[in-house]
Structure of Aspartate--tRNA ligase:
Amino acid sequence: MLRTHTCGELRLEDLDKKVILSGWVQRVRNKGGLAWVDLRDRYGVTQLIFEEGAVAPELLKTATTLGREYVVQAEGVVIERASKNDKIPTGSIEIRVSELKILNKAKVPPFIIEDETDGGEELRMKYRYLDLRRNVVREKLQLRHRMMQETRKYMDGQDFMEVETPVLIKSTPEGARDFVVPSRVHGGEFYALPQSPQTFKQLLMVSGFDRYFQIVKCFRDEDLRADRQPEFTQIDCEMSFVDQEDILEIFEGLVRHLFTKVKGMELGEIERMTYEDAMRLYGNDKPDIRFGMPFVELNDLAQGKGFSIFDSAELILGINAEGAANYTRKQLDALTNWVKRPQIGAKGLVYVKCNEDGSFKSSVDKFYSQEDLKAWAEKAGAKKGDLILVLSGSEKDTRKQMSELRLKMGDELGLRDKSVYRPLWVLDFPLLEWDEETARYHAMHHPFTSPKKEDMELLDKDPGKVRANAYDLVINGVEIGGGSIRIHDKETQQMMFRHLGFTEEEAQSQFGFLMEAFEFGAPPHGGIAFGFDRLCAIFGGTDSIRDYIAFPKNNAGRDVMINSPSSISDEQLVELSLDIKLKE
Amino acid sequence: MLRTHTCGELRLEDLDKKVILSGWVQRVRNKGGLAWVDLRDRYGVTQLIFEEGAVAPELLKTATTLGREYVVQAEGVVIERASKNDKIPTGSIEIRVSELKILNKAKVPPFIIEDETDGGEELRMKYRYLDLRRNVVREKLQLRHRMMQETRKYMDGQDFMEVETPVLIKSTPEGARDFVVPSRVHGGEFYALPQSPQTFKQLLMVSGFDRYFQIVKCFRDEDLRADRQPEFTQIDCEMSFVDQEDILEIFEGLVRHLFTKVKGMELGEIERMTYEDAMRLYGNDKPDIRFGMPFVELNDLAQGKGFSIFDSAELILGINAEGAANYTRKQLDALTNWVKRPQIGAKGLVYVKCNEDGSFKSSVDKFYSQEDLKAWAEKAGAKKGDLILVLSGSEKDTRKQMSELRLKMGDELGLRDKSVYRPLWVLDFPLLEWDEETARYHAMHHPFTSPKKEDMELLDKDPGKVRANAYDLVINGVEIGGGSIRIHDKETQQMMFRHLGFTEEEAQSQFGFLMEAFEFGAPPHGGIAFGFDRLCAIFGGTDSIRDYIAFPKNNAGRDVMINSPSSISDEQLVELSLDIKLKE
C-alpha cells in the first residue's frame, strides 16, 4: 500500500511510529519557518508538520506550495501536538514529515470542498465526483452502505434467499411508463426495464422459494419530480404460506433491526391505522403521527347559523393547534394566504382563538356566539391557549387542504422533529380507485393484490368499497414501503383483470405466464417492497433522496456529469432496425 | 403462518407435538386402508400418514386423490415411523394427519419435478418456475445466495463501501456492443446499459471513496454463446493507494473466504504465472493447472530428419501424457480425428509411445530412429508407459491446438477432477493486442489499464511488447476475474487513447469527464471484477452459468417464459420518437 495508516487512525498511542500517509491536501498554513498541511482521506484528517531546520529546505518549500486537493504521500514520525484539536479524533498528534511525494496535482476545484460549499446544485452535479469528496455527502453514502449490509444480514438471518431477477424483461401497459430496450437480434422487438420484479417474485413463490428478497434497481419513465429518479432502488421481498400479520411482524423486525444497528435507536411499538381512519383523521394515507392534531367534523355545530360558506359546504373540518392562541393577526393572515395559494386551493381560513380568560375570539364572531364556539372547542378538544383552524368545502378537497394545513402547523409549532421516528402501518387500503380520466377502476396497489374475503361480494355491486389485503409502512409522513397479500389462483386473477378493464386477450398476452403458473400449484403468498433511496433519506434525516444516490440524474432525467442521454451512431440505429422520427 | 414448522425440521425429539405443515405433494401411495403423502417445501420432505379408522373416511379419500404438486396444509401429530428412511433428515418421523386442506390444485406438470427429470431444455426454460422447484436447481441458487452474502461480509469487513452506480449511462463505441435505451424526454437521444461500471468506480476513487465494491448487473449485446448471457453479474471492486501486490492479496483473501465459508475448503497457496509463461507452457492465458503436461518445443530435435511436415513447420510442440502408452490404435485414431475437426483445425497428430521395454513406437518411425525418439522423450520428461503427442504448424495455431489437446487429454486421463480447485494468478498481460480486422491495436484489458513503467519506452517503438499492470484470476482453466492498476493522470490516458486510434475529439466526447476528473487530484488506484455467474458455476462444479441464473435467456437472447423481447405499441414508439425500419 502507498500508506501504512489511514488519515483517521493515528492517536497518542502511536507516538514515535514511523508512518506513511496518503491523501488529499485539505489546507496548508505556514508561519515563521513552520508549515502545516491537513491531509484528508475517507477516514479522517491528520495534520502534517514541516519545521525549518528539521527538514530539508526544499521540503518546506514544497509543502508551502501544495495546492488544495493535491494528492500526496508523506512519510514521517508521529509526534504529540503542541496545541491539540479535540474536534477531530487525530487531534492530539501530528506527523513530522521527512519525505513528501506529490502523487498527483489538482486544478483549483470549481467549488469549495468543505462541509459548507459555495457550489450551486448544477455545478455540483456536473462535478459530482468532487461533491462526493465532501464529508457530509460521502457520509450519506456510507449510511446507505450500512443500511444495505444490515438489511441483508437481517433478511439472510430470517432465511430469505436473495435472488436476482432479470433487468431485460417485457413491456406491459399496466402501471407507469416503461423504459424499453430495442433488440438487435429480434429487429422491431423490445425488452423493457422492470418497474419492479413483481411477477418474478411471485413466480419464485410458485417455485417454492418460500422467502425471497432482493435489493434491486427499478425503472420508471415518468415525468420527474424532486424526489423521483428514473432509476431507483427497492428492497423487494416475498413470502409464502403467510397472512398479513406474518408479513407485518417480519418487516417490523427489519425496521427495528435497521434502527438498532444503524442509528442505535430502539423503536417502540409500531402503531397501526386503517386507511379509512387515516383519511378521516388526517386526510392522508401516510399521516405523520409524530404529532396529533386530528381532524374534527364540525358540520353539526357550524351549519344553520347563517354563515353561508359553511351552510353550503359539504364538509367543515377543524384542527386544534395547541398553544397557538398567541398567533398574531399577521401570522393568521399569512396562514390564510398560505391555504389560498393555488397549490393548496382553499377559499379561506376560519380561526377560533381559545383565550386564557375562557373567552373565544374568532374570524366568524358575526355568526357564532361564545356558546357556539365553546361547543366547537369542546369537540376539538381545545383548551385555553389553543387555536382552532377550520376549513370547509367539498369533502375531498377539504380533507386534502386540511392535511396540508395540519402538516404546516406541525412544522410551525416544531412538532416534526427529525430526530424522532414514528413508524405506522396503514392497513386495509381500497382494492380499486376510480380514475376520472379513463372512466374506469385502477388497481390502487397493483392488479395482483388480493381483495379481502369478506368484501368479495361487493366486487360486482360496489367495487370502490372493496378493501384489499394491502398495507403501507409510513415513517414520519413518508411512505417507505407497501405490499399486499397476492392473488394466487387463476380465477380470481382473471376476475381482477376483468374489473380493471382488460380484455381476456390482453390479460392473456401480458400476464398469461403468471396465470398459467397459478395452475401448477401456487402457494398463498404476499410481500412488500421498500423504497430504499427514501428509507436512507429518512434515516439520514433529510428530504432529498437524490443526496443518497451516488450519481443521480437531474430533474430532466439527464446525467450532466457524463452528458447522458446522448445521440448514438447511424450504424447502431441500423443494427437496431430503428429510425429516429422526432415529434413536431 | 399457515404452518407451525417447515417440511424439513421435525425430528424424533418432536414426537407427540401437534403441528401444521404446508407444502407441495411430492408423491402419494396407498395400500390396504393406509395412505402416505410426501409433503415437500424448500426445507425438505416430511411424510404424512392417513390411517383408516383413525381418520374420517373422507380424509383418507381426499389424501388418496391428491395430485402431484397440489399445495396442501396438513394438521396432525408427530409420530415415530415404523420403517425409517435414513436418506432424509425427517426420515424417523411422520405426521398422523387429522385435518387436511387443499390450498391450491395443480395441473399435471409438463415434466417430472424430481432431481432426474424428463423435461427437455426448451420446455424447462418455458416453465422455468417449475424447473426451479427441483431441488438440484434450487440448490444452485441457494449456493449463489450464500456466495453473495459471504462476498459482502468479506468486503464490508475490509472497509469496502458498496455503492450503486447508474444503470442508465452513456453509449461508447469502445468494447462490446451496448444495449441502448431511447429517451422519451430527450427525443432522438439514448441512454446505454453499462458493460461494467468501470468509469464510475474510477470516479469514486477520484472522490476519495478509497475502497468500493458492488455486486452489479452488466449488459453486453453480443452474439450469445452457451456460457454468455446478455445480462450478467459482476463483483466489481476498486481501491486507492495500492499497487498490484495489494490487490492480489485482498482478493486472494476474498477467494479464500468464499472457499472456507461456502465450501468448507482451505485453499493452499495461490500460484502465479506470467502471461508469457502461460502461453509458452500451456498455449492459453487461462491454463488449467490441476495437471501439468506442459508444452515442450521439439523443433531442434525433430527438424532436418526428412519429415517434410515438421521441416516446414514454424513450431513443433509435444506434450507428455503420463501412463497413456496403452492407448490403442483405435483411441489414437480417435484423437487424430478429434484434432482434425474444424473446431481444432490441426492437420494431423504424431504420437510416440514409450514402451515398458524401453523401446519407442511412433507414427513417424519412418523418419526417426529410436535414438531420435529417445531424445524427444527426454526433453518431454516422458518415462516408460507414457505417450508423447506432437502437433506442428504455425506458432499461433499450434499453441492453440495443443492447448485444446492438452485439456482433452486431461479429461481423458481423469486429471480434471471437479472437486479439486487450483486457482492461479496470470500476470503481466500485454497492454495492447493487434486486431487484423481493423488493422489497429486494441486494449487487451480496457483503455484505462496502465502500462508497466519499465515498458513505457516501448510504447512508440513496439507497442505490442508493452506489458500492462494487469492480472487475471483463473480457477481450473476458467477465467473468473481480471483487473489492473489504472492510469490516473490525464496525459497518460490521452496517450493511451491516441495509441488506440481515438482522435482527440473522440476521446474528449466519450471520456472527457474522466480525463477532466484526473485533473482534480486523482489517487493511484486499481481494481478487479469477477464474473459472478461463472464463479458460482465453478463453486457448484458445473460448466453452465445459465444454471446459476434464476431466469436466464436462451441462446437467442429470448426469455421464452415471459416471451420477451416483444413488440411495443405504436403510441410508445411515437412517444420515443422512433420508427421501426426492419433490415432486408
Observations:
- DSSP finds 17 helices and 23 strands in chain B.
- The radius of gyration of chain B is 30 Å.
